[in-house]
Amino acid sequence: MLRKFAATGALAATLALAASGSALQAQTPPDKAAIEAIVKEYLLKNPEIIQEAMVELERRQKEEELKAVKRITADPKSPLYASEHHTVVGNPNGDVTLVEFFDFNCGFCKRGLADVQKILDTDKNVRVVLKEFPILSPGSRDASVVALALREQFDKDKLWKFHADLMNTRGAIGKEQALALAKSMGADMKKLEAGMASPKIGEALEESKLLAEALGISGTPSYVVAEDLVIGARGIEALQTRIAAWRKCQKAVC
User: Fold this and answer.
1) Same domain for 124 and 30
2) Nearest to 80 by CA among 226, 245, 233, 243
3) Which one is predicted more confidently, 6 or 40?
4) What CATH number should be reported for the domain holding residue 221?
């Protein structure tokens, strides 16, 4: 509706300007009522112009949105790729980076876990960035806090195991489940509790939130691979084809 008003307003302003210009050329004062009548008559006789304007407005808005996303995904220095706050697994120097925004309580993330695991197992030249994006429940956020704090203790392989095991935990996942798993994996619990209180944890979660908003991501899982957005657990082929295309032509689709 707002777009309709915007399109109509722009059209009306154009017609009004044209009518005003004609009035000036005729050396007569512009008549507001007359101009409004001209605009109204024109729109009533040509209502399709409103739809055409709306279509064009939506096209331009979509184009601008895509450009805004590309400015982030195409920048290797963006916090999407280069940040002290996220977890990197796989090959840290891989020739392709796959970024995943996830929530530990997301059923589709659990389904997509197998896809990322297979890529890590079969492609040793992929860098995987895990972005904590706990949007489903307070428990999700608590679990992410534990996972982020463990970065001070675990190496990348152990962090991935924690991630995968917690993701595969049955039922709702929260602080209790995350702490129990961390303890079973040999974490220093006192150090972990201290790490969970670090301001860096909040900074990491806020960074992921802002990135998601900038990219138009509102659900999980969402991926960025080969500078391209992949929304939802769309299967391993959707990820692998983009990885292969990037190596071939530096694009998501050659």
Assistant:
1) no
2) 226
3) 40
4) 3.40.30.10
